[in-house]
Amino acid sequence: MSTFKAPKGTYDLTPPDSAVYLAVREAISTPLKRAGYGYIETPGFEQVDLFSRGVGESTDIVTKEMYTLTQRGSERLALRPEGTASVLRAALEANLHKAGNLPVKLWYSGSYYRYERPQAGRYRHFSQVGAEAIGAEDPALDAELIILAVDAYKSLGLKNFRLLLNSLGDKECRPAYRAALQEFLRGLDLDEDTRRRIEINPLRVLDDKRESVQQQLVGAPMLRDHLCEACKEYHERVRELLTAAGVAFEDDEKLVRGLDYYTRTTFEFVHGGLGSQSAVGGGGRYDGLSEMIGGPALPSVGWALGVDRTVLALKAEGIELDLPAATQVFAVPLGEEARRVLFGLVTELRRAGVATDFAFGGKGLKNAMKSANRSGARYALVAGERDLAEGAVQLKDLESGEQKAVALDEVVTVLSELQAARG
């Protein structure tokens, strides 16, 4: 046993489970690639002020959950707790918005870090795939991103997820609602931290999950009653586009999400099989974030989907992904000459696109065949002195047990054809 273990609230991804995570990442990113989103990668840490300005000083993410780093000099750094602020910062720094083709469409995949109480579906280190469309104010763009997320979930076979939808208004109509909500909240029996939040970002109080708070929010003013005509029209257009695309959604008037930068469209995907941590992903429009972090006005929209929670959702629905075997062919040499010849064939097969492994370590036939079976390979290539003298190897189907001799110079062709036939 090692002296060291993974830190509390984190996890290691190891085979074979890691293959499921890779498949989920690929499934989420595939619709994005088809829709013109390019890949972006940012550092695992950023300046603290990027998140305090963008995510919000009043959010739990910034005040309680962000990991800050101690270093030489005066610069304050933090492990990234979310992806949008980093991606927007990188896009601005690279002047992607000046290339003349807006919106700038980007997708990313990576690890994020928050100091939270570990529980199922909530980790201190977690994985997300995200997408951002920067520089355009268009309800069709909001609808596009939501549809791409829905298509990703459906491609994995998920059925029991729900889409919650709301509008948070904009700088024209939100101030009046904010004042009305503050007046209502100040009359409630709330703890000191929550009362401070009323003054900084009262909408976040609506997102409080505690039953004692939710009970008091009955009768709270709703944002829908304060939306300006432009926001009402924008939100209705998003709803119409989703409906036309066959995307079911539920209007949720209290949906705020935990980040300060959202405006207008906000949405969340929830799954009933995950217990208290039901959110599997979400996002929204953030038209003022660029200006908050020192950039020009760039209305934008995006989302992040949790890879960890998507995997939990798959387990909750009993879905096993149809993953290709890591190994399709396993080579078993008997003797030194066979080791040399088969190792060369293994290299040729790999270069031809056939996933192939080799019985390393000089194992005997019995142990080598056990390794072949454990590898998940469909075929074993077995060769000894007699086979080589005849210019052939034995090809064994590990499912049916059938075995036949194949000429050395035909092995790559035969196995490539067998792989193609199996799809």
Please outline what is shown here.
It contains 16 helices and 16 strands. By secondary structure, the chain is α+β, with helices and mostly antiparallel strands. Strand 12, helix 13 and strand 13 form a beta-alpha-beta unit.
The major sheet is characterized as: 8 strands, mixed
Number of helices: 16
Helicity level: 25-40%
Spatial strand order of the main sheet: 1-5-6-11-10-9-7-8
Strand content: 15-25%
Distance between the first and last residues' Cα? 42 Å
Instruction: From the alpha carbons, calculate the radius of gyration and give it in angstroms.
Output: 27 Å
What's the rounded overall pLDDT mean?
90
Structural class: alpha+beta
**Count of strand segments:** 16
**Overall shape:** elongated
Low-pLDDT sequence parts: none
Provide an overview of this structure:
The chain is α+β, with helices and mostly antiparallel strands and 423 residues long. The chain contains 16 helices and 16 strands. The strands form three sheets. Strands 1-5-6-11-10-9-7-8 form an eight-stranded mixed beta sheet, sandwiched between helices. The radius of gyration is 27 Å and the shape is elongated. It starts with 16 loop residues before the first helix and ends with a helix.
